[in-house]
Amino acid sequence: MNLANRLTIFRIILIPIIVLIYVFPYAQFGITEGYVKVDTVLLYHKNIAILILFAIASFTDFLDGYLARSRNMITTFGKFLDPIADKMLVNTLLIIFVSQQTVPLVAVLIMIWRDTVVDALRMLLSQRGIVLAAGYFGKVKTVAQMLAIILVLLGNLPFELYGIPVSSIMIWFATLMSLLSGVSYVLQSRSLFMTNE
């Protein structure tokens, strides 16, 4: 197994650690959840820890892609696992945010539904030897999701100090980009299916 694939597996291993930090019953073990107070915003230590892990995971995503391309480490295993690792990381955090009622359920459902449809299309097209390339809206969606996750973990700082709900705006923007990219992929796939019938 090459280094790029090991980094992808490492990223997947970080996901249950992130979940554990969130769901661990601190009170039952007599542990007080620490926080830093910034004006009226409470920035919990566990959120800071998860933000660090998320940053590490995001960096490994960049690094394994760079290594795979620059050192010719592209493998079928990597092509299969890398997008799964990305979606597991992002969707896990979004679901956790929903459970804490910091992110709207509808927005997260739309993003997960979109991913499911696009993955199914990619699988069907791959059986015909067709690669469904990442589109503009999909790339913007990914960046918006990452920025939204960072802002939610930071309690919308520094924007919260000025009463600007940027984290909520980014969540809904990512949802809109998910919808647009999903529609774009469906239309693109429809034309590909029709030309290959």
Strand element count: 2
Q: Spans with pLDDT under 50 lasting ≥5 residues?
A: none
Number of individual domains:
2
Biggest sheet record: 2 strands, antiparallel
Task: Describe the global form.
Answer: globular
Distance between the termini: 38 Å
SS-based structural class?
Answer: mainly alpha
Radius of gyration: 19 Å
Per DSSP, the total helix count is 6
Percent strand: under 5%
Order of strands, widest sheet? 1-2
Average pLDDT rating: 89
Along the chain, the helix and strand elements come as: HEEHHHHH
Helix content: over 70%
Description:
GO terms for molecular function: CDP-diacylglycerol-glycerol-3-phosphate 3-phosphatidyltransferase activity. It is a multi-pass membrane protein. It catalyses: a CDP-1,2-diacyl-sn-glycerol + sn-glycerol 3-phosphate = a 1,2-diacyl-sn-glycero-3-phospho-(1'-sn-glycero-3'-phosphate) + CMP + H(+). This protein has 2 domains: 1-100; 102-197, no CATH class. It is built from 6 helices and 2 strands. It has helices at 3-23, 45-70, 76-99, 105-126, 136-153, 166-195, and strands spanning 35-38, 41-44. Helix 1 packs antiparallel against helix 2 and helix 3 runs antiparallel to helix 4 (105-126).
Short description:
The chain is mainly α and 197 residues long.
Helices and strands in order:
Blueprint: H1 3-23, E1 35-38, E2 41-44, H2 45-70, H3 76-99, H4 105-126, H5 136-153, H6 166-195
Antiparallel strand pairs: 1-2
Helix pairs in contact: 1-2, 1-3, 3-4, 3-5, 4-6, 5-6
